[in-house]
Amino acid sequence: MKYISLSLIAGLLFLLFSLSNCSDECEQNYTYAIIEPVYLSFDELRSTPLSLSAARRVKTPGNIEPYGEYLFINEIFSGIHVIDNSVPENPRNIGFIELKGNFDIDITGDILYADHYTDLLAIDISSPASPQLLSRSNNAFLEAFTTNVNGILIGWEEQLLDTLILCTDPEPDLGAIARWWPKEDYEVFVDPTIAQGVANTDRSRIPFDTTANYGKHHYRFLALEDRLITFNNLQFRIYDTSNPENMNRIANFRGARAAYALAYNDYIVMVDYWRTSFYKKEALLEGLLDFYYLNDLKACMEPSIWASSMIVPSQSQRNNPSCFTNLSDTNGVFVIGLSPDKEYSIQGFPPLSFRPTAATFTGPERFIICAAESGVYAYNFNKTNPVEDMDQRPINPYSVQKINATYWVKAENGLFQYSYSPSEGKLIELGGL
Fold first, then answer.
1. CATH superfamily of 307-433
2. Are 247 and 240 in contact (CB under 8 A)?
3. pTM score > 0.85 for this model?
4. Does the CA dihedral 411-413-417-419 come out positive or negative?
């Protein structure tokens, strides 16, 4: 009996020693990441002075607006470049207006209109090297952003946390998990109450694409004398800008949507994914709707939100509003003509051997055409061989804008400026950025 008791005691001691070692081995240090929202307070947004700072390299150009010999180039979500293009062979980047969250700009007279996250700005650019803020319409685009008492959601920050977990600890509460995946040697946890369904499926990046949080429905602008139209894929609004220091919203049309707009004679032409609408300009600018639409022109759409493919002919060719589009399975250029009795016609040009991304007129049946895969082309469809000239460098062009007498091509590898000689059928590369 004494022998059994000693054996039992020895066994218990061994078990306790083993459990102690198990506890030590069970301790584990976990490193994981959390995604924290980053907010910009409204006070900070509106207290930052507007000024021209040092020039920056153009990275993601949006809209380009001419002002005399100057160009104002929207840098998507960052601000506005000011370019002296008085010598097209050598454009000078003279400065940058920092406007974080800026998506589009337009100019009429000496006034530049721009969005600044939730706010609409009117900026005096009569002295391009010294822009002056005339007025700010607070919360003009409030519904386009995620906001709360902390301000505007402008991005996400990743933070690494270390946690020591023991066998004796209860299961750790890491919060509700909306999405997770391995990221290097740790895991990512996201609280769905913050995520709001904007998680990015690209696993090589932080779970949230910060640009997705700059706004759900970005607004674009069309400035016309003493009126400004702001529009997106949900609605458009009309502002009275006769006094830029005190802009006044006179109309809001919810459900009247557009991704691109232009003024043409007595009409405002608005294009979206569903249709092309023609609004009577005189009525619209007074806050009234008088319009008709063409559902079968819904394909008349830009290839990207800031790379317009709507074509306005040169002044001598302004007989019809026009559109560059793919209305069939072939890669073509089409011109849509509109008559006063609301009838329209489609003039199609021979199919191309590539898929065009944008085009603009240089003359009757002459176009500058971009193709992301193959370059920039001067086309004359009057010729047996329509390709007059080409730049086939791998610049990946996606849009072209005619600015005064030159053509600015936006590409993944920069901004390229060309002139065009109709007599020689030549593209002449000028200075770029």
1. YVTN repeat-like/Quinoprotein amine dehydrogenase (2.130.10.10)
2. yes
3. no
4. negative
